[in-house]
């Protein structure tokens, strides 16, 4: 063999041959004169190529080169003796199996049959395929290298192929585009090493591209470069047309230039110059036809549709999808064709109902496209349920090594989406566990996949996931899935009477409290009822259901469905049913500072408010406030032993002595009464536990504190400080403390007040021209014929006694609220010949019209035809409602939104019972939730949002089915219907 012959005779791989030629190594002589170090340093050579070249050099050195002479004909023959014939009958240089894009395992398998080139694969394929027990991955590789590529355009040897039409995976296409590889001719020139330098390009994607390269040779021949001048096409269009196509390109998320370039030939073949229609008009009217007729435009349109569908986790109906399409792209015929075409391509499919979803492939089918072989195998084993230890033992590596490979593989899948991701929304949004997932979806490997791939994301939001029960109300989730979750959720429920109760001690407790503790009941009495209930169900020996005395008593005490009181007694009170905004605004607890009160003070101060919220005594009020006054809004309030409430830092001795200093001299009985009126502390409790603090001031049946005289300067300063006619004691104390921070004595006392023409009573300091604080508020509220609360100082409006006086005047019909916060004085109505007896008769006439124990609103009264002579006054409904709700002996009411639901009895108005009455009046004993809401609005003018209505229904014995959105009279009706 002569040394000056071409290295082509060595049958090197394409990559090795090209790199050597690049470095001016054209003959065997050139190769032998090149050092091994230089060869290893050649840029573009991988380890495999270096080994191949070094092996050839060793072979050459062992051969007798001078004795062998090869003629030109022999050179030509040796270079052509390895080739394959493609489907077009064209001859191409053979391809080593290392360049076919198959796994190492498959390469070794083929070599075991002396198959080293693609031509040998073609001739021996039947022999290989006949072998039994070939591993799946090898079978798959052999099929892939004999499968016609999915080219999505008509092949034309005169034109290059855009990579968008090569049928590539999303990852491969995105990687190539990121490297500005737009056409197949550009891809054809890339070596394996060059491809691997592209961002996000993995070995699996490289193999996919290698397979594509030689398959295109085999089926279509070599590509040519795309040299067409795109600007020429652009110049053929008017500016208006280009602007319109730019809008379309933006909608389809593609390049304007490329869209023009790819669809121009098609639309110019359709459009003929016409005096009746301009080019732009034609394009805008026929844009969908044009897009559909061009491969690039069609592909971008299909992507647009797929993207729209994928935005909804569980797909959308054809009508929903049509509504989501931009107006410029709407064409019914093309739209129908598109849906049919996508179904034919298996790119979309119908879900359980009539919704369409994107048809992603399973990770088990796709994983080798994106991951190295060892990564893919480990992830597949993990998805099948194998532990890290089990996989490590199989592969003879450590658990930690398996975890590292697994982690690397998961990261490579970051941008990919698979069939199993369909359930990701449920997995991350709701508190579903393995048991529920497998029961409902029968998808163990899907659960393993989600848990593996999204483990870190789940750990971040685990505590934020919604309860599983809320899946039933999620209308995005298909009904069949929600029904299956319903079966799982309710499989732990038992039917008792006409209700369904979750099996468990807490649920049994809530059920019994609701049905047997509407009046005060002791804990021991409740325990007896509970034990009887268990016996009735046959669970009396079930240890997990038994109630333990002390521990479980504390749990009931904290239950949000009860109000607890001394003597271990409680009653059912559904705290979650009420809106306590008004209660808390009126009590205004944050106004109190560094003092101790009894809840009895507030209970006595606002009797109408207590009646409205159905609070029976100071102990219930104490327990209620403890449960609804959250730490974030009432951080300085401490609920001590009933009925004591501490506001801020309390010094009881100082409080008692300070209060005495305001009243001294005073008899013991009067002092006890004043303290009870102001702080709410029961007189017996105060006498027994508080009086000893001031015992040293008691003499001859009275308490008397001697105060020092003030100099004229202090008195003058205080007089300027107090300019209002009324203050609370607390307000004056704060003013004095701020004005005289260094004063050591007791500034505020009866002597001072007398000199300033003030007096004190009930915690208020007011001018001597008023008989009481109540008298002061009475005069404010009777000053004008029309009283607008917004014109009264907010400081005054917040005061308890003001609110008490306001309530009393309303109750006596001295003032009537005719609009929110607007009142009319009775004396003004009296001038029109109206008497208070007219108001009472109006209430009686309404009751006679409506009947006993009926629910109504002013709106429903009017709708049923009620009329009264007072209607001629021309006031809004608010005025007449105000008259009715003050008749507390015969009418009760409940606020519902901005309206008031009244009941023709004084036993209390229950919105829940009202709702039950409506449902039981339905012929089929059920009603859709939206229909019920509409009925409340149309018949009673009660406006609620759906969630509020559902919460109210859940507090009744009715059954709400969140899947069908229907309210049933009870569980039995639901069971029969659903």
Structure report:
By secondary structure, the chain is mainly α. Helices cover 51% and strands 9% of the residues. It has 52 helices and 27 strands. The strands form ten sheets. It has a three-stranded antiparallel beta sheet. The longest helix has 18 residues, at 203-220. The protein starts with 13 loop residues before the first helix and ends with a helix.
What's the quick description here?
With 978 residues, the protein is mainly alpha-helical. It is elongated, with a radius of gyration of 44 Å.
Question: Which features does this protein show?
Answer:
mainly alpha; 52 helices; single chain; three-stranded antiparallel β-sheet; 978 residues
Distance between the termini: 89 Å
Share of residues in strands? 5-15%
Compute the number of strand runs: 27
* Share of residues in helices: 40-55%
Oligomer: single chain
**Sheet with most strands: strand arrangement:** 7-9-8
Number of helices: 52
Main sheet attributes: strand count, strand direction, barrel closure: 3 strands, antiparallel
* Average pLDDT level: 84
Q: Which structural class do the helices and strands define? A: mainly alpha
Shape: elongated
Low-confidence stretches: 64-80, 224-235
Radius of gyration over alpha carbons?
A: 44 Å
